[in-house]
Every structure is written in structure tokens, then in C-alpha cells.
Amino acid sequence: MERAPYLAALALTVLLAAGCWRLGEAYESEALVTWVAYPETVRVDAPFSFEFGGPVSPDQCGRLDTATLAVTDASIELAALRSTFRAMCAPQHVSFYEARPLRIATPGEYRVRSSTGIDLGTLVAIDSGSFSAVRTWGEGTIREAAGCWLFGPGWIGSQRVFALDRLAPELQEVGTERVIYVRGQLRGFISCGNWGSRPRIRVDTAWVTDKRVGDLYP
Description:
disordered N terminus
């Protein structure tokens, strides 16, 4: 009889160590798309990479199910779905990052949109000419590490992490709980100690939003 509580506690410890103790069925809901990177100008029918990402869950009780990119006559529509569980899970934030090969068949301007309502820029497709540099738009959080200012489209954890170059000093004081909007250009890499070599975003403009990190995980 005395072994029962011990065995139950041991089982719970093993489940928690595995990352998540799931109870019941998964609950499906929308995951936010908060960040993108793509060339502002592309050539019709020429392939390029379109990157996008966002937060999924504040702990390992959530997972990304699908992330979709659809091109319409005048826009690029981004969406994602997640599953969450009523559970006891490891407190590690989960975010997603996708890089999709894309071709635009018709010249014109394409507004980049997601259901989050965040301004994610406009892509222009031209019949001839050169691609522009890859630019980035979107919301996320920042933290300092190994002399770098790291940025990610969620609370920095298990996600694609970038290093910000030319981040204004006043923004370096906002802390890890506030959400900032960053617009810039991908320009090579920066070495960030234990975080390794991170893709560099040269910041053109950035500002603090009225959101806190909890708002990224509705």
C-alpha cells in the first residue's frame, strides 16, 4: 500500500521530464503569424524563399498543426493552426518558423496579410529586373545575450532567433515582457556566443507596441 503514492509520483516525474502530461483531447485554434521575411521586389516566375513565423504556446502543451501561404490576385495570405492540451507541461515557449519556396505568376503588388492584423508589407512582382534585398517585418520580443540583441516572433526559446543590428538604445530598455515591432533587412550573420551564429537583421525602424508577451499566446 505504501508503494502506491511513490509509484504515482514517479510516473508523474517521468511524464513531466518528457515535456508534457496530456489530459483529454487536443483543442484546435488559430496560431498567430507575427513576422515575415521576403524580397520586396521579385521577378515573375522566378523562385524565391518566403519566410514567416509566430508564437504557438507559452509551454510545451502546444504544437503547430499547419501553416499555410496562399497567393491571391492582390495579396499573400498567411495562416496557422495549433493544438493545445489541458496538461502539465515543461515551461518552454513554442514558436514556429517556416521557409517556403514561392513563385509569383502575375506582375503587380501583393499585400502580405495575416489574420493577426499586423502590417507585414507589400511584395512587388515585375516582369524583368533584379530581386531586391530580403526585408523583414513583424512583432516579437528581444533579449540580450553574449553581446547581441536577440529577436524572435514569440518569447525567445525554441524558435528561429535573429540578432538585431542598430537597435536604438531606448528600445534596449524595454525588457523581455514587452512586444516590439521591427522592420529591417537581412544582412549576413552575427556571432552570439552560446546562441551561435545568428542571422542579422539590420534595423531600419522599430518601436514598442502596446502588447505584452502574454498577448502573443491567446
